[in-house]
Amino acid sequence: MRVSGILPDAFVFPIVIKALGTRGVWLHGHVVKMGHGGDCFVRNAVMDMYARHGPIEFARRLFDEMSERMVADWNCMISGYWRWGDEVEADKLFGSMGVRNVITWTAMVTGYSKRGDLVSARRYFDQMPEKNVVSWNAMLSGYAQNGFAEEGLELFNEMVSGGGVQPDETTWVAVISSCSDRADPKLANSLVNMLKEKNVRLNGFVKTALLDMYAKCGNLAAARKTFDELGTFRNVVAWNAMISAYTRVGDLKSARELFDRMPRKNVVSWNSMIAGYAQNGESAMAIEVFKEMINSKDTKPDEVTMVSVISACGHLGALELGNWALNYARKNQIPTSISGYNAMIFMYSKCGNMKDAERVFHEMERKDVISFNTLITGFAAHGDGLSAVNLMWKMKEYGFQPDRITYISVLTACSHAGLLEEGKKVFESIGAPDVDHYACMIDLLGRVGKLDEAKRLIEKMPMAPHAGVYGSLLNASRIRKRIDIGEFAAKELFRIEPENSGNYVLLSNMYASMGRWNDVERIRGEMKTGGVMKTTGWSYVEYNGKLHKFIVGDTSHERSKDIYKLLMELRKKMKLAGYMADKESVLRDVEEEEKEEMVGTHSEKLAVCFGLLVSEPGAVIRVVKNLRVCWDCHEAMKIISKLEGREIILRDNNRFHSFHNGLCSCKDYW
DNA sequence: ATAGGGTTAG
Asked: How many CA atoms does the CB half-sphere of A33 hold within 13 Å?
């Protein structure tokens, strides 16, 4: 072998081996043959190659065979063990070393950081006899990558105020990344100013980190400007960061545009797009993109992909699709993270399958607070308040502290199940209840009929009530027909969120149920003059593993004609059976809307009719609606379930309504 | 060194 016309010597070999990476293995033989095996630098390079690329045991054998070891030999072995996840051996070597240098200590800091053990990392960092910029960077990056933004920024302050070292580009990347986590525009600004003052040269990493920081701190324009000016630094990471920047603010169109335009995609690109759709209520699109990803074949889904996909299936109530996705993951040996299991719990409970949700929960070797919260929320949606409360008290036995979401979920569960005493106990056990917990408690009081107590609690709140608080009160007032309190709540709501049509509809329905048609007209008029639009949402039915979606007045479905035909037949049957007369006030809206060529037919009714058309007689029809179930629909579902002898399970955003033989499982709802 | 994931809500 020849390099530059001369035989490679001990100086060249280490460089060549390093440059070759894994492919350096074949050089090992040459080294021995040519007699350089005895040179300590060559030996170190070969050992390091095995420590980096494996097998680590080969490195260890070379290490053990050495009669004399340099500090670098020890350091390479320690880093190697950390790389292969062997904390015990790394620790052992560190403990048995004679002389350590700054690299040794830094390796320990990096090792513990990578494992997420920031406390141990910091212990080593603090004990270091001397620190250089790499040591500081190791600690700062550790904090940044593990979400300890606060600690990272604090340490950075220490570094610049008295650390005795100058930050380099790696430092800035870590600090900027911590700032991104904090999502604090002021801090971002001061960082940018600091960069200007110090006249820091910005490399590609720093620029991309800045892009991400701008985006996460709410300055989309600056992010885009940075992206456009990246030039040769505009790699796949920058594209992905920009895509996420758009999905974060719900601009799916711009995100998709970039996604379609980017020259190369990796798994993160796909995951960003899928998660972007999933997080913005476009679950069906999320699944479409997932299918595209599978078909494209050049990028394989990973565990992050599956989390979004499974969650999307949950939102859609698409059980067949969800099971197909889980099957795909199993067949392709995609590992399941805690988030993955949590998504499964979510999916099963959103599909009405609490047995499997509980099974997954109990099968999990490691759980986190979200696992508990998700299952508790599932119980809440199914009206199983006691299971929710019990699981919350059990959390503490498992060593988990309920967080604010736990309390929201469990109070919601109490509310749906009418568990006043249990709910009060839970509320009192919260150290410092926030405004959402008050909202839940007011909802609970309202639903059990204690409206005056609910109003008094609002007056006693230590913070300003938000719309949710008054919304709960208005809803309860409607159920209990307490027009006085209802008007009070509505007045506040019209002030806080004048654009929300739901409040107008709620109050209007309240008047309607009391036959106060003049007031109904008045509210509708106010809605019109205020320019308030009625919100609409999609309804979904899963059939044969495919999703069928409907929107109010939908005529785009291929079976649309049959659906409307069935709808009219049902209406005739309902009239013949005498339902329409009894429920005249209830169904007034339907009649009006359907007179207008059925333009206003609610999406869930269309979905149910489609279900009736395509499914086996007697089969359960499952519908998922994106918004809350409408009042007249609720009544109509009861009737249809009886007329057709079918069970209809309807899930709105957060709870299940099972209609069977003219009855509904959610008695308090309407 | 820079990019992606799960839970709450009238």
From this structure: 8
CB of A462 closer than 8 Å to CB of A481: no
Least confident of A288-292, A314-318, A385-389, A513-517: A513-517
State the Rg of chain A over Cα.
Answer: 31
Question: Among all chains, which residue has been given the structure tokens 């299936």?
Answer: A313
CA A214 to chain centre: 21
**Interior CA angle at A664 toward A658 and A666, to 5°?**
85
Q: How many other CB atoms sit within 10 Å of the CB of residue A591?
A: 12
Q: How many residues in chain A?
A: 670
Angstrom distance (rounded) from CA A127 to CA A139? 13
CA of A114 to C1' of B6 (A): 22
> Residue A141: CB partners within 8 Å, gap ≥ 6?
A113, A170, A173, A174
Q: Which letter does DSSP use for residue A3 in this model?
A: B
Bases of strand B lying below 7 A from some protein CB: 1-10
A659: which strand partners?
A: A648, A664
Q: Which nucleotide is the nearest neighbour of A271, by CA and C1'? A: B4
Exposed, middle or buried: residue A236 (CB in 10 Å: 0-12, 13-18, 19+)? middle
CA atoms of A275 and A260, how far apart (whole Å) = 16
Say yes or no to pLDDT of A386 above 60: yes
The closest nt to A628, taking CA to C1', is: B10
Estimate to the nearest angstrom the gap between the alpha carbon of A620 and the chain centroid. Answer: 30
What is the percent of chain A with per-residue pLDDT over 90, rounded to a whole number?
Answer: 52
Distance A197 CA to B3 C1' (A): 28
Amino acid letter for position A557: H
Q: Number of H helices and number of E strands within chain A?
A: 37, 6
Measured CA to CA, the distance from residue A221 to residue A235 in angstroms comes to 19
Q: Which residue is nearest to nucleotide B6 (CA to C1')?
A: A339
Q: How far is the CA of A243 from the C1' of B3 (A)?
A: 9
Pairing of strands A656-660, A621-625: unpaired
pLDDT digits (tens, 9 = 90+) for A287-311: 999 999 999 988 999 999 999 999 9
Opening angle at CA A450, ends A486 and A665, nearest 5: 85
Q: Summarize pLDDT for A193-236 with one digit per residue, the tens.
A: 989 888 888 999 999 999 999 999 999 999 999 999 999 999 99
Give A194's contacts (C-beta < 8 A, 6+ positions apart).
none
CATH number of A435-529: 1.25.40.10
Nearest nucleotide to the CA of A381, by C1', is B8
The nucleotide whose C1' lies nearest the CA of A208 is B2
Q: How far is the CA of A376 from the C1' of B5 (A)?
A: 21
Nearest to A445 by CA among A493, A477, A403: A477
**pLDDT at position A670:** 47
The answer, yes or no, to whether residue A276 has pLDDT greater than 90, is yes
